[in-house]
Design a protein that fits this description.
single chain; alpha+beta; Alpha-Beta Plaits; three-stranded antiparallel beta sheet; two-stranded antiparallel ribbon; 3 helices; about 20% strand; globular
Length: about 90
């Protein structure tokens, strides 16, 4: 067996995968969003303003490596339209 084949992810002993810890979901109140683009400048991996002038999300669950940028986008949103919620469904802030 090649070395690369041995480096796969091992299943949990009970056969179940661990639940993702620290899942953060992004929500947008589109009635409040002014599409200023601040969030896109800070976190273009998650947010996009298309040619129709509306904000779109590339993903609803923000991976750990992008959470700091998503929090900054939430903080800088001039209308407060962005909310990040934890896996318990409560806003992070």
């Amino acid at each position: 067996m090649k070395k690369e084949e041995k480096q796969g992810v091992r299943p949990e002993p009970d056969g179940q995968s661990k639940k993702k810890a620290g899942v953060v979901k992004v929500t947008v109140d589109y009635d409040v969003c002014a599409s200023t683009g601040t969030c896109v400048q800070v976190c273009p991996e998650v947010f996009e303003i298309r040619s129709d002038g509306f904000l779109y999300l590339f993903m609803e669950e923000v991976p750990a490596e992008l959470q700091k940028k998503a929090i900054e986008a939430e903080d800088l949103c001039p209308t407060g339209a962005i909310t990040l919620v934890g896996d318990d469904g409560k806003p992070l802030r």
